[in-house]
């Protein structure tokens, strides 16, 4: 399939269920675009993050993988946090970074589950030990699982989603969170996920008001719409997958590269007068 095919209105990937969350990127067909743009060209870096040290959670696949690749292309050394069982996708990401940067960037893999407080501290400590600085904290990891009725939403799932999606965020010069379109529209089958991502947006705004003046640390949020990542076939029903992305004005799911550029913008000096803000790469849906 030509790269441009996935950018045409009406494109929806075939149904391809996966039985493990967050899913396996190497099993997706077609594979999401990490660096390829809608016209078939490749992302062109401009040294926006030269010499920076970035910590990227969930950087082994989906949006996180594209963020890691673009940050490395822009000149940053990166720590990539991933679940221990996602070893193949994590090493695939490292290989992609080596190939596109000619091996010039340092990459550290941290196979750590961030739902535990001690692991959050451990991950940051290992990043500092490796790179000596933390310039960009990119908290991208997350989980979801569709449930049609809140009556069937277990307390165990509620707590797990919040432990993953917001509690671990509590623990650089820029901080960028990955939230979602769902707090702004209210997904009926993702009550826990939507609530946790709403908390991310609120947390970022409050944290920005505390940090940006006193510490000079900018805090912003990317709120993606329907993006083709392994999390989709791993967590959504067949009917939801078959209509995935059709209801936004562009009538297609987005690609990770179309979100990753937002993270580059928020982490770079280009966004120097922005903090406590949200960007919405969502295919044209207006978020008032």
TrEMBL record:
GO terms assigned for molecular function: oxidoreductase activity, acting on CH-OH group of donors
Compositional bias annotation for Basic and acidic residues: 26-43
PROSITE patterns: ADH_SHORT (PS00061)
One Pfam match: adh_short_C2
Superkingdom of origin organism: Eukaryota
Ranges for region Disordered: 1-43
Keyword NADP found: yes
Protein name (record): NADP-binding protein
Species of origin: Dacryopinax primogenitus (strain DJM 731)
Taxonomic lineage of the native organism: Eukaryota, Fungi, Dikarya, Basidiomycota, Agaricomycotina
């Amino acid at each position: 399939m030509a790269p441009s095919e996935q950018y045409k209105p009406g494109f929806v990937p075939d149904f391809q269920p996966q039985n493990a969350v967050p899913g396996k990127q190497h099993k997706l067909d077609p594979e999401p675009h990490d660096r390829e743009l809608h016209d078939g060209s490749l992302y062109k870096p401009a040294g926006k993050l030269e010499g920076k040290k970035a910590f990227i959670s969930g950087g082994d696949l989906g949006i996180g993988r594209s963020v890691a690749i673009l940050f490395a292309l822009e000149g940053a050394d990166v720590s990539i946090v991933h679940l221990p069982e996602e070893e193949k996708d994590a090493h695939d990401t490292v290989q992609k970074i080596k190939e596109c940067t000619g091996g010039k960037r340092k990459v550290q893999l941290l196979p750590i589950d961030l739902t535990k407080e001690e692991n959050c501290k451990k991950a940051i400590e290992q990043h500092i030990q490796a790179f000596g600085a933390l310039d960009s904290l990119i908290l991208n990891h997350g989980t979801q699982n569709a449930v049609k009725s809140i009556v069937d939403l277990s307390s165990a799932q509620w707590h797990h989603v919040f432990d993953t999606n917001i509690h671990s965020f509590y623990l650089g010069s820029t901080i960028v969170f990955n939230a979602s379109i769902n707090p702004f529209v209210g997904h009926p089958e993702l009550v826990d996920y939507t609530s946790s991502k709403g908390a991310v947006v609120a947390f970022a705004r409050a944290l920005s008001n505390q940090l940006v003046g006193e510490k000079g640390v900018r805090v912003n949020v990317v709120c993606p719409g329907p993006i083709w990542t392994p999390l989709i076939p791993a967590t959504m029903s067949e009917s939801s997958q078959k209509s995935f992305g059709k209801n936004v004005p562009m009538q297609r799911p987005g690609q990770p590269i179309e979100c990753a550029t937002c993270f580059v913008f928020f982490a770079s000096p280009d966004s120097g007068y922005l903090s406590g803000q949200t960007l919405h790469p969502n295919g044209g849906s207006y978020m008032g």
